[in-house]
Amino acid sequence: MNNEKKPLKKFSKARKWLFIILAFFLVFIGLNWPTNYYIEMPGSAVSIGQFVKSNVKPPSNFYLVTVSETSQPATVWEYLFSFTQKHASRIPKTELLGGSSSSQYQELQNWYMQTSQQNAIYYAAKKAGLKPKLHYKGVYVMQVLKGSSFKGKLQIGDTVLGADGHKFHSTEEMISYFQKKQLGSKTIINVVREQKKINFKGKIVKVKGTGKPGIGIQLVEHVQVETKPKVTINAGAIGGPSAGLMFTLTSYEVFSGKHLAEGHKIAGTGTISPSGKVGMIGGVDKKVVAADRAGAEVFFAPVDTAGMKKSASNYLLAKKTAKQIGTKMKIVPVRTFDDALHYLHEKY
């Protein structure tokens, strides 16, 4: 009788271990299951001089600041662990990507970066008293809107050159051309994709937001700047438009020959327009932390709140974060490039 119980005991023990292994396996799968959130954390401060090419040596004391972001939706483990990180944020997938895929979002950030660089070079050259030339190349497709007859045809990064045999010479000309057409009328647009010219057929639709006829795309002007001396910027894998202000400061020093705050580490953020206006960005609190860790003395923060509540100002959030971390770094509000330039002239 005792002999009969031993096999049962062994079977029970084996079943127990099987249950434990299965439980560990399920926990492992569960913790690595993707959530619908991306995690953002402070990134790093990077000297812009290494990205700028010119026959004039660029300064090395201006820094762009990045936000570290998971490339894919965070796993359950990453999501839970982020709560132990003081400056981590959990961004809903729909809020970050909209209707785009992860790859489309990255492509979008690349195009924003290129536009930012062109705006920076153009305005810096103009501010330095030079006469930069803008060559219109068309418009970048940033997003194909819901309801557009070109959805599934156009891709992010395509450049629209013209339509129906007409070549556009400005974004305003393109928008005006489509707005004059009847809703539902047919049109053929001419596009460049990966250096190949392609034609797409579609119809004119009512554009959401404006209520006017159009082809239903979110766009940004594709221009190329020509300057003497020649200046180019290549930030590699860094994307987005938020380094515009710092690109402009670096380019301005190259064009003007003036030394701005030489020997002092200056960081900052903000988009730049062709007219020198500094625009709001995301993740400014994380950028303040990254700039402080890198030993920056100054951090420029956009203060423009057009269309937003004053409390949404990048500058106010940057000041709040600086106080929380106890940094000695000076947070400087800027609305325009001139604000940053004036501060550097006065301080250094």
From TrEMBL:
PROSITE patterns: LON_PROTEOLYTIC. The active site is at 242, 287. Keywords: Hydrolase, Protease, Serine protease. It is an enzyme of class 3 (hydrolase). GO terms for molecular function: ATP binding; ATP-dependent peptidase activity; serine-type endopeptidase activity. GO terms for biological process: protein catabolic process; proteolysis. Its EC number is 3.4.21.53. It catalyses: Hydrolysis of proteins in presence of ATP. InterPro entries: Lon_proteolytic, Lon_Prtase, PDZ, PDZ_sf, Ribosomal_Su5_D2-typ_SF, Ribsml_uS5_D2-typ_fold_subgr. Coiled coil: none annotated. It comes from the Bacteria. Transmembrane segments: none annotated. Residues 238-347 form the Lon proteolytic domain. NCBIfam families: SepM_fam_S16. Belongs to the peptidase S16 family. This is endopeptidase La. It comes from Lactobacillus kullabergensis.
